[in-house]
């Protein structure tokens, strides 16, 4: 290498005088032992950035790739690079290093990379996957945006931040995105407009940016972390396939338009802890019913505006403010339970407004405690005759003592008179649910249509073990001996036992205490409850666990 060539490169690029070329890549000496890759000569197709490079006997560790690495091509005739291999000493890929390398279809990242800068691989339209190295700590703004064929992203534990629009408009990206617990922040629009179907947030993720998953039209499942502080504005806007979500106790506010146009969203479980439902939070969602916990104090403007499938809502004991238009155009809302010991303030007179109707309360019943009726009758807004006529105290509460289990979302804590209630099973890891029992220890499966008093129920459980045995209840058959596995396959999926490769004329299913729960010839057998089952196929028996 001749130093005169290096000087010409320096003058062209504005770099220091210690620039030199190795195998088509130009480097700049940062100090006596470290170098940065600063550009590629025109016409180079395969770029290898090794761990070390040598110039006139001096050896340098290559620790970074410069900003605009590809744009700095000496002749500037376009980006020919198809493959890039990055050595294990490189810690930083700076901003726009490979931006718009539309022919680049293979990237091999080194094992020391800590930072991928802003727009580093933006618009690399042939890149198919990104598997983050274990050392990565930061993915910059727009780092992989508009990578139109990017289909798979795997993020590493140890990653701290994901920048704004990091994967925005990479609309071939599908499958599951798992955001590790080490991540403390995810920028706005980070995964917006992708085709991901599932999002799993690590337990320690605290912050998400606005619109983070907006317009993800294939998103069906979301698991939120237990330390998430809020659901920011427009977080899931236009996620039309999202059907259900559990909002953990750590979340204090649901932001503006967080679930706007989530038209298939029907099942929302909100744990105690939330205080505020933001403006337009659920507008035009598919909600049919929702129960707000006692910690909620404020419904901001138009919180449930245009939820045209919403039929029932329970406002917990803590609600203080119901802002204007909170239930505007909820044309099918028939039951509202307001359970607090004080009358919520209404900011204006159109809380329930419908087009063509002054109030929109024609079919609405508002259930409040008996001792609060007189207070509502004289309170601002609530005392208006069109609202006042909606009030009733004809409801009862249901208290569920779960014994460490988790209740079904369809088991509500409050019901109006005249409804027959089919109780749903609770769940508890490691246990079979035996049923609901009243205060007299009677098993209860249904609350009568004639009930007018409060109900207290207790869940009973049976611990699951791997030694079924036992004599069973009276009338049951003898315990079954477990046989070794043959060509017959027995397994459970979605609370259905499947029997494959069976020629037996009779299939019998028993629960752990020996009771027969099925006998017949079907090979797909719904069982309904979680637990261990013994499946007798002809002369042999198999054990399967339904979860």
Beta-strand residue percentage: 25-35%
Q: Which spans have pLDDT < 50 for at least 5 consecutive residues?
A: 1-17, 74-78, 467-486
Query: What structural class is derived from the secondary structure elements?
Result: mainly beta
Helix share bin: under 10%
Distance between the termini: 68 Å
The CATH class of the domain at 395-463 is Mainly Beta
Average per-residue pLDDT, rounded, comes to 87
CATH topology of the domain at 395-463: Immunoglobulin-like
Topology:
Blueprint: H1 3-13, E1 19-22, E2 25-29, E3 34-40, E4 46-49, E5 52-55, E6 58-65, E7 83-86, E8 92-93, E9 106-108, E10 115-116, E11 129-131, E12 138-139, E13 152-154, E14 161-162, E15 174-179, E16 185-186, E17 195-201, E18 207-208, E19 221-223, E20 230-231, E21 244-247, E22 253-254, E23 267-270, E24 276-277, E25 289-291, E26 298-299, E27 312-315, E28 321-322, E29 335-338, E30 345-346, E31 365-367, H2 373-378, H3 385-388, E32 391-392, E33 395-401, E34 414-416, E35 421-422, E36 431-437, E37 443-444, E38 446-447, E39 455-463, E40 489-493, E41 496-500, E42 507-510, E43 516-520, E44 524-526, E45 531-537, E46 540-546
Parallel strand pairs: 3-6, 4-7, 6-8, 7-9, 8-10, 10-12, 11-13, 12-14, 14-16, 15-17, 16-18, 17-19, 20-22, 21-23, 22-24, 24-26, 25-27, 26-28, 27-29, 28-30, 29-31, 31-32, 33-39
Antiparallel strand pairs: 1-2, 2-3, 5-6, 33-34, 35-38, 36-37, 36-39, 40-41, 41-44, 42-43, 42-45, 45-46
């Amino acid at each position: 290498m001749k130093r005169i060539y290096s000087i010409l490169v320096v003058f062209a690029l504005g770099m220091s005088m210690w620039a030199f070329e190795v195998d088509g890549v130009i480097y700049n000496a940062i100090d006596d032992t470290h170098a940065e890759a600063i550009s590629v000569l025109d016409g180079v197709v395969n770029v290898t950035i090794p761990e070390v490079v040598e110039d006139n006997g001096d050896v340098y560790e290559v620790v970074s790739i410069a900003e605009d690495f590809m744009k700095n091509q000496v002749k500037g005739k376009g980006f020919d690079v198809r493959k890039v291999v990055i050595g294990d000493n490189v810690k930083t890929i700076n901003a726009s290093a490979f931006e718009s390398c539309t022919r680049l279809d293979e990237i091999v990242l080194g094992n020391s990379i800590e930072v991928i800068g802003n727009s580093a691989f933006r618009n690399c339209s042939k890149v198919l996957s990104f598997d983050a190295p274990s050392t990565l700590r930061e993915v910059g703004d727009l780092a992989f945006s508009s990578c139109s064929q990017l289909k798979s992203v795997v993020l590493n534990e140890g990653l701290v931040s994901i920048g704004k629009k990091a994967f925005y408009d990479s609309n071939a990206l599908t499958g599951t995105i798992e955001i590790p617990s080490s991540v403390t922040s995810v920028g706005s629009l980070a995964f917006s407009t992708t085709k991901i179907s599932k999002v799993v947030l690590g337990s320690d993720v605290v912050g998400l940016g606005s619109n983070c998953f907006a317009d993800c039209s294939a998103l069906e499942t979301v698991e939120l972390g237990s330390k998430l502080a809020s659901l920011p504005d427009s977080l899931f806007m236009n996620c039309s396939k999202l059907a259900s979500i559990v909002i953990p106790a750590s979340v204090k506010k649901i932001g503006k338009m967080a679930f706007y146009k989530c038209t298939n969203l029907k099942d929302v479980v909100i744990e105690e802890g939330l205080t505020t439902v933001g403006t337009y939070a659920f507008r035009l969602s598919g909600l049919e019913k929702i129960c707000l916990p006692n910690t909620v104090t404020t419904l901001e403007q138009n919180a449930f505006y245009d939820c045209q499938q919403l039929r029932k809502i329970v406002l917990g004991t803590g609600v203080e403010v119901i802002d204007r238009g909170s239930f505007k155009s909820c044309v099918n809302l028939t039951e509202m339970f307001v359970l607090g010991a004080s009358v919520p303030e209404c900011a204006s007179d159109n809380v329930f407004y419908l087009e063509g109707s002054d109030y929109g309360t024609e079919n609405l019943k508002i259930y409040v405690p008996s001792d609060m009726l007189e207070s509502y009758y004289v309170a601002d807004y609530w005392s208006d005759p069109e609202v006042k006529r909606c009030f009733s105290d004809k409801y009862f509460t249901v208290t569920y003592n779960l014994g460490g289990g988790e209740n079904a979302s369809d088991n509500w804590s409050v019901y109006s008179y005249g409804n027959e209630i089919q109780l749903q099973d609770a769940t508890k890891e490691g246990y079979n649910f035996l049923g609901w029992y009243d205060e007299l220890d009677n098993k209860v499966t249904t609350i009568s249509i004639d009930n007018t008093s409060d109900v207290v129920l207790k869940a009973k459980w049976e611990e699951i073990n791997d030694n079924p045995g036992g004599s069973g209840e009276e009338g049951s058959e003898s315990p079954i001996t477990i046989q070794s596995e043959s060509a017959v396959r027995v397994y459970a999926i979605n609370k259905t036992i499947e029997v494959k490769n069976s020629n037996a004329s009779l299939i019998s299913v028993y629960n752990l205490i020996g009771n027969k729960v099925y006998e017949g010839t079907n090979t797909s057998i719904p069982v309904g409850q979680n637990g261990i089952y013994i499946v007798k196929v002809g002369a042999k028996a198999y054990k399967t666990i339904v979860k």
